[in-house]
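Write out the 3D structure for:
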Amino acid sequence: QVGETASIGLTPTSISGGKAGGEIKTVTYTSDNSWTVEDKPSWVVLSVSPALGTPGTGTITVGFDTPNPGAERAGQLIIKNTVTNEIAICLITQEG
């Protein structure tokens, strides 16, 4: 069976930052409709271009602004299509 094409996506589906912090990684979003950020780790800073929630394709920069003081940590960047309610997930880790 071939599934339907998703109305929203993130590429790549996982990224990782170094223990020392100070890195920026880029994730590409594609959405047929407006979208929102549903969740992100508290220890990263996001910047979106074009503007947050704009349909089409753009980039989300994920800033690993702070060093990780402990063991490897992990979280998810989750964005949601506001019309279809589909979600896209990018796993985010930072070395410990």
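The radius of gyration is 14 Å.
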